Amino acid sequence: MVATLLTLGLGLVSCDAVEPEGASPQADASRPTVVATSTMIADWVEQVGGDQIELTGILQPGADPHIYEPVPADSIAFEEADLIFYNGYDLEPSLIRLINAAGVSAQRVALGEVVAPLDLEEDGAIVPDPHVWGDVSNVVPMVAVIRDQLIELAPDQADLFTENAEAYVADLTQLHDWIGEQTATIPEDQRLLVTTHDAFQYYANAYGLTVVGTLIGISTEEQPSARTVQQLVESIQTLGVPTIFAETTINPQLITTVAQEAGVALASQELYSDSIGAPGSDGDSYLGMMAANTRTIVENLGGQITEMAP
User: From CA 151, how far away is CA 147, in angstroms rounded?
Assistant: First the structure.
C-alpha cells in the first residue's frame, strides 16, 4: 500500500523545483515564479504546475511553520514572486507578516482559508484551526484554486494545468476513501487520538476518531504546564487509550513522559503533522504522509491495514 501511494506521489516536490532553505532561486524568465510557504502547499503546487513554473518552497521537510523564523532569502523570494501561496489561519505567522510587508507585490493566496475552518478554543478565545489538510477532501478545493491561479499566470498552459489537477484530484479522492476504510477497522472504543499538539482535529472528524487530548494547543509555540500534563495522563488512563503519538516536527521528550506516567505505549513511528517527511521517507509527499499517518494510527489503535487497490 505505501509503495502504491508513494508511486502516486513521486516527484511532487523535486530538488529542481524547490530551492533549499536560504538559497537564491535562479528564475527562468519564461516561466512564472511561484512561492509556497509550507511543504504540503509546495507539494500540491508542483503537482499541478509541473515544470511549467519556477517554484520555490520556503519551509523544508521537518520544519515547523508555527515557529519558523524567516531568513533574508525568504524576503527576496517573496519580492521576486509572481504568485505566493500560503496556508493562512495564522499557521505561519512570521511568514504571513513578511508576505504582507512593503515590497511584496505578488498575488497572494491563503489556500487554507478556502476551507471553512473548525473553530477551536485557545486561551478563552475561539480561533480557526489551520491544519485543514488533515481531511484529504479539503485539499480538492485548494487544488482547484491552485489550478485557476496558475492559469491566470500562464493561460497558454491551461490545458496542462487542468489535466494535472484532474489527475491529482483522482489520487486524492482514492486516498480519502481508503483512509476512511482503514480507520473503520479500529475497534470503536479505541478510536481515541492523543498527540503532542492539536493538529489532527480535521483528520479525526473526517475519519471517525476522537481527539482525547493534546499536550499543547494549535500552535507549537505553547509550553504545557504540569497541570496540563497531569490532566492528559488522567484522561488517557480513564478512557483506556491504548497508544499515544509523537510528531516529527516536535521534540518527543514531553509526550514520552506522558506515555510513561500513563502507563501506555508510545507509537514507534512519529506522525507527520505540519510538514511532509524528508526525501526518501515514507512521508516525503502529501499522499505519502497521509498514508503513513493512517498506517501508524490504525495499526497502533488495534485496526488492520489493507493495501490500496491500484
Answer: 6
DSSP states of 132-195 = GGGSGGGHHHHHHHHHHHHHHH-GGGHHHHHHHHHHHHHHHHHHHHHHHHHHTTS-GGG-EEEE
Q: Which pairing describes strands 119-122 and 125-128: parallel, antiparallel, or unpaired?
A: antiparallel
Tell me the three cell numbers of residue 251. Answer: 521534540
Chain center to CA of 200: 10
| C-alpha distances out from residue 289 to 127, 161, 210, 249, 295, Å | 26, 24, 20, 13, 10
Are 59 and 65 a contacting pair, CB within 8 Å? yes
Q: Residue 58: enclosing H or E segment and its boundaries?
A: none
The model's pTM: 0.88
Half-sphere exposure of 289 (CA within 13 A, CB side): 28
Predicted confidence (pLDDT) per residue in 5-64, tens digit:
333 333 333 333 344 344 344 445 689 999 999 999 999 999 999 999 999 999 999 999
Q: Which three cell numbers stand for residue 153?
A: 499566470
